[in-house]
Design brief:
The chain is an all-alpha fold. 73% of the residues lie in helices and 2% in strands. The chain contains 20 helices and 3 strands. A hairpin with a 6-residue loop joins strand 2 and strand 3. The radius of gyration is 57 Å and the shape is elongated. This is PTN23 phosphatase.
Length: 685
C-alpha cells in the first residue's frame, strides 16, 4: 500500500478585504499576501500586532475609536461590515487557516510532514477563532462551520500521517489504528456536512465536500481492515484474516460507488487498492479453504479498531515575539496595565516574603547550632600546620643564618661578664679579710696592754684610715650584692635562651622535629574525615541556599509582564497572575528540598561531633604545645639583643666597680700596714 496514489485534499478560499481606515501599505501587505509560507508569516505578524493594538486603543464594538471594517463572506460573496477591531482579527485568523489548508492541499506530499503541519496549523487557527471570537460576525465563521473546518483539517493531517506510516512500513496494528482515526475525523466532518443548517450555509460546495468525505470514510475504513487482516496473518489467525480482508473489500466497493465523478487520481487510488485488497482476500480465502480450515468469525464478534489520534490543532499565540515580532505599540501602556503590574509586583513580593521567612528561620537555627558546636571547617584538625615551619619562625631562622656568630658572641659576652664579676668579688673579699685581720690584731694588742676588752660583739676602734676603708667596702659590698642578683638572673636567662638560639641557628629539620605534632590513629583519621565531609555538606547546603535565593531575587527583579497585561482582559488577570507565578515553582521546589535537608544534615553533624570530642581534646593539647613552643623560640630570638645589651651594661658596671675595688684594696693594704707599724711601736715601748 506504500505505493498507492494520494487522495485529493479539501482546501478553503481566503476572504477578501473591503473598507478599513488603515494605512494603504499596511492594508495591502496584510490582505493580499502571497500564497506561500511567507504569506502565513505575514498574517501571523499582522494578527499579533492587531492583538497588541486593540488592547491599547478603544477600537472594539461601540468604543470611541471604532471604525468600519469590511470583508467578503466566503460562501455568499456578500460584503459584511462591523465597527470592531476584533472582526479584523477574526478575518485575518480565518485567512491564516485557509492559507495553511491551501498549502497543505497543494503540496505534492513528497514529505508528508510538511502537509501534515500545514493542516494542523489550519486546525489551530480555526480552533483559536472558534474559542476566542464571536460567531456572529459572518456565516463562514459560525460555530458549525468552524467545527467542520477543524475536523476536516485534522482528518487530512492524520491522512498525511497514515501515508507516511505505510511508507515507513510501520506495524500493521498501528497503521490500522491511524487509519481508523482518519475515519473518525471524517465522520465528525460528515455529520456537520449532513446537518441541514450547515448545508444551507455552505451552498453548492456542500455536495462536493460531502461526496469526497463519505467516499474517504469507506476508503480508509477499508485500509484499516486491510491492516487488521495483515496483523491477523502475522499472528497466524487465518479465520480472522479472511473476515478482515472480506470487510475491507466490502468497504472499498462502497467507496468505489461513492467515487463517481471524482478526479482520476481518486480512481487510480481505488483501482490500486482494489488490486491489493482483492489479491489479499482471494489468497487468504483459498489458503483457509484448502490448508488451514479455520472457522471464519463474524466481524461484529471481533474487537473494533480504536483510532489513534496522532495529530492536534497547533495553538496560535498572538503574543509570541518569535512569530509576531516586537510589539510596535510597546510604549503605549494604559493606566490599567500599570495598576495590574503593581498588583503583580505585590504578588511577587508576597512570594519572596514567604520564601525568605522560611530561609531566615532555617538560617537562624543553623547559625545557632554551628555557634554551639564551635566547629570551624577550615581548621577542624589543623593537621596542615604541623607539616611545615610557621613563617614567623622561618623568618627568625633566616635572620640567624646570616649571623652565624650569634650564639658564640652571646656566650663570650657572658663569659667576660663572669670574669669581671669574679674579679670584683675577689677584691672585695680580700679587703674584707684585711679588715678582719686588722681587727683581730687590734684586739690582741689591747689584751696585751691589759686594757678592758670592748663590749661583747663590738669591734675595737679602727684607725681613721681603716674606718674609711671599712665604710667604702660596706658600700661596695652592698652594690655588689644587688648587682649579683641581676647577674644571676641574666645568666639564667642566657642559659634558657642559648639552647633555643642554637636550635634556630641549626638545620631546619631539627627545628621542625622540635615542634610537637599529633599522633593520630586510623580511627581518629576516619572520625576527622567523616566530620570534614559533613561540614562540607553544611557549607554546600549554605552555598546552594544562597545561590537559589539570589536566583529567585533576580528572576523576580527581571519579571516584567506589562506587555502581557496590556493584551489581557481584566477578567483574566487573576488567571494570568497564576500562570505567570508558576515560573517560580521549580526554584521553590529546589529551595524546599534544600531547607528540608537541613534537619538530616545537622543530625549527622551531631553524631560526628560526639565521636570527634576525644580527638578534638588531643588535637587542642598538641596545638597548645605547638603554639607555646613556637612562641618560646620566637621569644628566645627576640631576647638575644636584650641579653647582649644587658651583658654589655653588666660588663661596664663591673669594670667600673672592679676599678674602684682595686683602688680600695690598695688603700686597705696601706692602712693595714700603717696600723701594724703603729702597733709594733706600742709594743716596743
Amino acid at each position: 500500500m506504500e505505493a498507492v496514489p494520494r487522495m485529493p485534499m479539501i482546501w478553503l478560499d481566503l476572504k477578501e478585504a473591503g473598507e478599513f481606515a488603515f494605512n494603504d501599505a499596511v492594508k495591502k501587505s496584510a490582505v493580499n499576501v502571497p500564497r506561500d509560507f511567507e504569506g502565513c508569516s505575514t498574517l501571523r505578524k499582522y494578527f499579533g500586532q492587531l492583538h497588541y493594538l486593540q488592547s491599547r486603543i478603544p477600537m472594539g464594538a461601540e468604543q470611541e475609536a471604532a471604525v468600519p471594517i469590511a470583508w467578503t463572506e466566503i460562501f455568499s460573496g456578500k460584503t459584511v461590515t462591523h465597527e470592531d477591531i476584533k472582526y479584523e482579527q477574526a478575518c485575518i485568523l480565518y485567512n491564516l487557516g485557509a492559507l495553511h489548508s491551501m498549502l497543505g492541499a497543494m503540496d505534492k506530499r513528497v514529505s508528508e510532514e510538511v502537509s501534515c503541519t500545514h493542516f494542523q496549523c489550519a486546525a489551530g487557527a480555526f480552533t483559536y477563532l472558534r474559542d476566542h471570537f464571536p460567531h456572529s460576525y459572518s456565516v463562514d465563521m459560525s460555530h458549525q462551520i468552524l467545527n467542520l473546518n477543524i475536523n476536516l483539517m485534522l482528518g487530512q493531517a492524520q491522512e498525511c500521517l497514515l501515508e507516511k506510516s505505510m511508507l515507513d512500513n510501520r506495524k500493521s496494528f498501528l497503521v490500522a489504528r491511524i487509519s481508523a482515526q482518519v475515519v473518525d475525523y471524517y465522520k465528525e466532518a460528515c455529520r456537520a456536512l449532513e446537518n441541514s443548517e450547515t448545508a444551507s450555509l455552505l451552498g453548492k460546495i456542500q455536495k462536493d465536500w460531502k461526496k469526497l468525505v463519505q467516499m474517504k470514510i469507506y476508503y480508509f475504513a477499508a485500509v484499516a481492515h486491510l491492516h487488521m487482516g495483515k496483523q491477523a496473518e502475522e499472528q497466524q489467525k487465518f479465520g480472522e484474516r479472511v473476515i478482515y480482508f472480506q470487510s475491507a473489500l466490502d468497504k472499498l466497493n462502497e467507496a468505489i460507488k461513492l467515487a463517481k465523478g471524482q478526479p482520476e487520481t481518486v480512481q487510480e487510488a481505488l483501482r490500486f487498492t482494489m488490486d491489493v485488497i482483492g489479491g489479499k482476500y482471494n489468497s487468504a480465502k483459498k489458503d483457509n479453504d484448502f490448508i488451514y480450515h479455520e472457522a471464519v468469525p463474524a466481524l461484529d464478534t471481533l474487537q473494533s479498531v480504536k483510532g489513534a489520534p496522532l495529530v492536534k490543532a497547533l495553538p496560535v499565540n498572538p503574543t509570541d515575539p518569535a512569530v509576531t515580532g516586537p510589539d510596535i505599540f510597546a510604549k503605549l501602556v494604559p493606566m490599567a496595565a500599570h495598576e495590574a503590574s503593581s498588583l503583580y509586583s505585590e504578588e511577587k513580593a508576597k512570594l519572596l516574603r514567604d520564601v525568605m521567612a522560611k530561609i531566615e528561620a532555617k538560617n537562624e537555627v543553623l547559625d545557632q547550632f554551628m555557634d554551639s558546636m564551635q566547629l570551624d571547617p577550615e581548621s577542624v584538625d589543623n593537621l596542615e600546620m604541623y607539616s611545615h615551619i610557621p613563617p614567623v619562625l622561618m623568618e627568625k631562622c633566616a635572620a640567624l643564618s646570616v649571623r652565624p656568630d650569634t650564639v658564640r658572641n652571646l656566650v663570650q659576652s657572658m663569659q667576660v661578664l663572669s670574669g669581671v664579676f669574679t674579679d670584683v668579688e675577689a677584691s672585695l673579699k680580700e679587703i674584707r679579710d684585711l679588715l678582719e685581720e686588722d681587727e683581730a690584731q687590734e684586739r690582741k694588742l689591747q689584751e696585751l696592754l691589759g686594757k678592758a676588752p670592748p663590749a661583747q660583739g663590738s669591734p675595737p676602734q679602727p684607725s681613721p684610715g681603716l674606718a674609711e676603708v671599712s665604710r667604702e667596702c660596706s658600700k661596695y659590698l652592698e652594690v655588689h650584692e644587688k648587682a649579683s642578683y641581676t647577674n644571676t638572673e641574666l645568666h639564667k636567662a642566657m642559659n634558657l635562651h642559648i639552647g633555643n638560639l642554637r636550635l634556630l641557628s641549626g638545620p631546619l629539620e631539627h627545628v621542625r622535629a622540635a615542634l610537637p605534632s599529633p599522633a593520630l590513629t586510623e580511627d581518629d583519621k576516619q572520625v576527622l574525615q567523616n566530620l570534614k565531609r559533613i561540614l562540607a555538606k553544611v557549607q554546600e547546603m549554605r552555598d546552594q541556599r544562597t545561590s537559589l535565593e539570589q536566583q529567585l531575587r533576580e528572576m523576580i527583579q527581571k519579571d516584567d509582564i506589562t506587555t502581557s497585561l496590556v493584551t489581557t482582559d481584566r477578567s483574566e488577570m487573576k488567571k494570568l497572575f497564576e500562570e505567570q507565578l508558576k515560573k517560580y515553582d521549580q526554584i521553590k521546589v529546589y529551595l524546599e528540598q534544600n531547607l528540608a535537608a537541613q534537619e538530616n544534615v545537622l543530625k549527622a553533624l551531631t553524631d560526628a561531633n560526639v565521636k570527634y570530642a576525644a580527638v578534638r581534646k588531643g588535637l587542642a593539647e598538641v596545638e597548645h604545645k605547638w603554639n607555646t613552643t613556637v612562641q618560646t623560640l620566637v621569644a628566645s630570638y627576640e631576647a638575644y639583643e636584650d641579653l647582649m645589651k644587658k651583658s654589655q651594661e653588666g660588663k661596664d658596671f663591673y669594670t667600673d666597680l672592679e676599678g674602684k675595688a682595686s683602688k680600695l684594696l690598695e688603700k686597705a693594704r696601706a692602712a693595714c700596714r700603717a696600723a701594724e707599724a703603729n702597733r709594733q711601736q706600742i709594743l716596743e715601748k
